[in-house]
Amino acid sequence: MTEAWAPPIAADGGFLLDSAPLLSRSTVDRTELLREGPVTELWSSGRVLLVDGKGRAQIGPDGRLVYEDAAVFGEQPTPHAVLLGSQQGTVYWALRTERDGSQEGWQDLRIAGAQLDDTDAGLLTTAVGLLNWHDHSRYCAVCGAATNRVKVGWARRCSGCDREEYPRTDPAVICLVHDGADQVLLARQPVWPPERFSVLAGFVEVGESLEACVQREVEEEVGVHATDIRYLGSQPWPFPRSLMLGFAAVADPATPLRPADGEIEEARWVSRADVRAAMSTDDGIIPGLRLPPSVSIAHRMLKGWAFWS
């Protein structure tokens, strides 16, 4: 009989993520030295991933991403191509496509991210985030002149003041608050599907440490004070360009919950037994509780906590 899986335990006795967040997986070489290589040579034998305006890419019958031969698009990289990385002699690029991604076989990371293998997951995550940044960085923040892609898509240079700008990532904390025993604090936003609950999250402000952000966001969103804040792991979340930094914290369940108006529709303490029950279903749903999808770091955090003992 196969033994039941159990999550690793941190050195301080606390829980860890049950596994690496699915959008943190990557296998390609993406060092800066690769980006400084001979562009024509990198392009000529390259493979191109097409991504539509909603972050969708084509998935083949085998469950893998569909790549085009770079030569189809010309002998030189197109002005809008971005280099993603290299693996076993194959160089991967990405391009925004005008194709209608709503057709069958095109899916985004929220839908397909959990099914993709490590290579495809890393490439699509990078492509979506990088292309989103280019879409929103067409003008210089200093002088307002148009900017152009340089360094195979890993920078933009201003045509006016010659300033270079690099891809931006917005840090956000996501925190699993528990009572130190068998309850976890979950909340739902008004725009989510009925009964969908998750852990708390928010963006880091200027001049703020990650730990201070955890305390502020938890108190702002549900009115409780978080202590024993501990880092768990991170995951890129290119919607449009965030980096989710996962933490665990402890709070007193006797403190009255005060959901933030307009931001949190409902907050409640949920038992470990209920989270385990939802985790045991194919879709993470039991009556009254719908957990976040497995592609999210929130799911990995909840699973790590639920089966920690």
UniProtKB/TrEMBL annotation:
Give the enzyme's EC designation: 3.6.1.22
Entry keyword annotation includes NAD:
yes
Which cofactors is this protein said to need?
Answer: Zn(2+); Mg(2+)
Provide the top EC class: hydrolase
SUPFAM superfamilies from the UniProt entry: Nudix
Q: Which reaction does it catalyse?
A: a 5'-end NAD(+)-phospho-ribonucleoside in mRNA + H2O = a 5'-end phospho-adenosine-phospho-ribonucleoside in mRNA + beta-nicotinamide D-ribonucleotide + 2 H(+)
Indicate the transmembrane segments per the record: none
Q: Give one GO molecular function term.
A: NADH pyrophosphatase activity
A Pfam family matched in the record: NUDIX
**GO CC terms of this entry:** cytosol
Start and end residues of each Nudix hydrolase domain:
167-291
Q: What is this protein called?
A: NAD(+) diphosphatase
- Organismal lineage: Bacteria, Bacillati, Actinomycetota, Actinomycetes, Pseudonocardiales
